[in-house]
Amino acid sequence: MLRKIFVCLFLIPFIIGATIDFESKIAHYEKAVRVVSKAQAPTVSKEMRDLYIQLQQKKSECKKLQKELILKNKRLEKEVLKIKLNISKKECQNTIAVIGIRTYLRHRKTQKDISMMKQKYHKMIKQRNKNTLRIRKIKKKIKKCDSWMQRLSKCQEQLGNRFQNEFQGIIDEGTPQWQKMIPGEKNLPVYGSVMTEKQTTNYACPLDNALRLDGYSTGWIPFIQNGTISAGTWSYPGGGLHLGLDVASPLYSPIQAGANGLVLYADAPVPTNCGYLGNYCGWPYGGGNTICMLMAVNEQLFAVSLNHLSNEIHVVAGQQIHQGDIIAKSGNSGNSTGPHTHIEVFRLRISVQAAVARFRQGADFAWGCGWNQPATCSDIACRIRPESVF
């Protein structure tokens, strides 16, 4: 009962639209994530996501203003130096002895010019110092925004750890976007991703009954350079089923093809940073923006899926990709509490043609292995740990 009363009191300020500063809001969330119920968790997670986006925007505005002020100060420095040199030059000319009325008048005019230049000089110095003070204050604001964002990320992590079993990353519901699936064996797009240069080798998309992959890769390369493993396969760090590998990286980190392959499904129906706990959008349900591919390594065929991507996807279904091509950028979409890419891998026991035909029956990212058990196998594939092959 006390827990319910606390949560209601916690949500009241947001319902009535009261103005609360960031510190107060985050302090409320830090308490709330420890006591909210399962039913309230998605709402709290979404609110924290929205607040995080506001802080990102605030930080971006501060950095833009900081950059403008730094540029203004650089221009002021040049002007100050120029005026200082002119003052020195005028003062040097004015040291000549005053002889005659005309010389005296010139002397008076020079003195007046020097006085005006000095006024301008001091005014610009004052403005420069004022800008410098503003830059320091902005730096503190940016640092504070970073601190708030880190605290919100920690809150999302705590909430995720509490409800990992209740809100699995992907569930067996929803409907695929059929127009985003490989169309078949005819009229497929040309080889290569949008971001890659034209290949000199003859990589052609398969046509009609000649469906194949033009060359196996001899090994894997990382899908995300300099990413950090935030959760391994089969279980989360705090417990709970986890069927793939989570690689954390900043939003819009480039994602490259880990091997030569063929895109079966590519769709970006939601915004890049729309993730929160229980946000079951996209296909598969909860995946947000996703890609599913066949990949060939050392004469073995694999299926690889990438989930929670940004809405910047550079490939289309039916397109062949070459190892190293930039195929997408990372995001925080779907059932996700922070920027990362969820990667799942299946070892296939069928040919490329059979795999495409099977996938076209229902766009099954699980390849018959389901979403409820680790290390499962179907008649065509086995779900394996990405860590075992990458």
Automatic annotation (TrEMBL):
This is M23ase beta-sheet core domain-containing protein. The lineage of its organism: Bacteria, Bacillati, Bacillota, Erysipelotrichia, Erysipelotrichales. The keyword Transferase does not apply. InterPro entries: Cell_wall_metabolism_enzyme (IPR050570), Dup_hybrid_motif (IPR011055), M23ase_b-sheet_dom (IPR016047). Residues 48-93 form a coiled coil. The keyword Coiled coil applies. GO terms for molecular function: metalloendopeptidase activity. Residues 242-347 form the M23ase beta-sheet core domain. Keywords: Coiled coil.
